[in-house]
Amino acid sequence: MTVPKKSAAGKTAPKNRLAALSSARKAAFDVLMAVERRHSHSDDLLRSKAVDALSAPDRHLATALVLGVLRWQIRLDYKIQALLKRPKAKLDPEVLIALRLGAFQILHMDRIPARAAIDESVELAKQAGQRFASGMVNAVLRKLSKAPSVDYPEESAAKLALAHAHPVWMVERWAATYGIETARALCRHGQSQPALTIRIQDPEVADQLAAAGIELQPGRLLTAARTVVSGDVTVSAAYREGRLRPQDEGSQLIAELASAGFGNLNQNAKSIVDACAAPGNKTLILAERNPQALILACESSSQRIEPLRRRLAPLGDRIECRLVDATTLAEDAVYDLALADVPCSGTGTLGRNPEIRHRLRPEDLARQAERQLALLLAALRAVRPGGRVVYSTCSLEPEENEQVVAAALAQTPSARQVSLEPAIQALLACDVLTSSGAEHLCRCLTAAGAFRLLPGAFFTDGFYVCLLQRNAQ
After folding, report:
1. Residues 110 and 255 in one domain
2. 124 and 214 co-located in one domain
3. Spatial separation of the C-alpha atoms in residues 190 and 325, rounded to whole Å
4. Up-side HSE of residue 97: CA atoms within 13 Å toward CB?
């Protein structure tokens, strides 16, 4: 007679539980292999048909495995290499992914028995055509499961990087720019899963979600923001009907500040260009706050333009979605407002996008800055005299932020930087910002009047936002 296995908690597990976990692990393995080979990004892969076809528990487990392995990969590899007979040996990707998955479960998922994690990792290696290496996978993970836990010191940038599985060069930069304590806080935030934040304009939507058993908390910065404490908003009628939108609160704030202009929400823009519009969340806020405006939404990616058009279709003739590189815009001195929320390294979003730390290299920052400068210069050309430009990134790196702004101003004598404090006060006066949010943002202002929102400091991703004005003639 077959005796059902017991879980770590001592409860009898269903006979098919191991098979269910295998589905989740196989999906996680496939996603991690695609990320390793740079075929796609984890956030896109985790929304693929293959993952969507899993049951809800398996989908959640697969997501936890993928993001967990990516967050802790540097330290997982460090531990794995120490247990190899030849520590400097280069492992095939299939073997390495199987080892990472097993090691992550052993070290970071207490509810999964080590035996299950080891057996499944061995099976994954076999199914991937690495049967000859399955014995090594088994041996390494067994050693790891019996090894004592280790506390890693954090007194230097290099040791801090290993303790929190970040690249040494990145942590050294943060320590030099912000100090070791802030670098430590950034690393810790990068290892946590950000809460889901949504935007709700209609208070009735929040009541409907509460009635459906979805628990929300008020936003910490914006009155239209809510943090999802429990429940799945994606199955709600409000989500299907577009009456709520998942969006980080800091991301929402950028479009709110752009709409506030120089502190007068009643003086709405009549013409707006969004230089890098996809996926359209900020464009929608610009449209909400500037109801009379005609908006040009630019997108240079042919793959992203059609989803953007569908997203913004309810705005009708108010908006034009144009497949164009904003640096080539022919319009000169036309718009009241330009938003240049530019592509960047994304180092302010490592908690949400952990694989960035594995792809980004120090030399990439100069390439990013060159593109960002071109976009900002184009935005400055596009606004009329007296018009304003909001420049923003989700980067923590000065090369992509202050240095880009300085270079743009040096090449545009007709423009100047303007403090964001009046815009913050205007948002507070109109009940867009919470009082604690306004107070926090004013503390984040730089001497030049821009602000830097560090990740985790106010439960958001990290952002840099700057306001520029083209001088009136």
Report:
1. no
2. no
3. 32
4. 27
> What total number of domains does the chain contain?
4
Name 197's bridge partners. 227
Q: What SS3 class is residue 11?
A: coil
Instruction: Note down the domain range covering 230.
Output: 193-246
The answer to the question of residue 41 being in a domain is yes
Residue 264: the pLDDT is 60
For residue 368, being part of any structural domain is answered with yes
389: β partners: 338, 468
Is residue 234 in some structural domain?
A: yes
Amino acid at 190: G
State the burial class of residue 384 (Cβ atoms within 10 Å of its Cβ: 0-12, 13-18, 19+): middle
pLDDT along the chain (473 residues), means of 10: 41 42 88 91 90 90 96 96 90 96 96 94 94 94 91 85 96 96 95 93 89 92 94 89 92 95 68 96 95 96 94 95 96 95 97 95 97 98 96 98 98 96 94 95 94 90 96 78
| Whole-number Å distance between alpha carbons of 387 and 378 | 13
Extended strands (E) in 105-189? none
On whether the CB atoms of residues 93 and 37 are closer than 8 A, the answer is yes
Tokens of 373: 């400068």
The token pair that represents 293 in the structure block: 């405006």
Together in a domain, 241 and 197: yes
pLDDT tens for each residue of 426-464: 999 999 999 999 999 999 999 999 999 999 888 899 999
- Distance from the Cα of residue 117 to its chain's centroid: 28
How far, in Å, CA of 337 to CA of 383, rounded? 6
Asked whether the whole model's pTM tops 0.85, one would answer yes
Residue 152 domain flag: no
Q: Are 25 and 68 in contact (CB under 8 A)?
A: no
Of 221, 290, 268, nearest to 249 by C-alpha is: 221
- Could you please report the per-residue DSSP string of 69-118? HHHHHHHHHHHHHHHSSSTTPPPPHHHHHHHHHHHHHHHH-TTS-HHHHH
As a whole number of angstroms, the distance between CA 9 and CA 112 comes to 10
* Same-domain check for residues 199 and 267: no
Q: How far is CA 411 from CA 327, 389, 406, 437, in A?
A: 15, 15, 9, 34
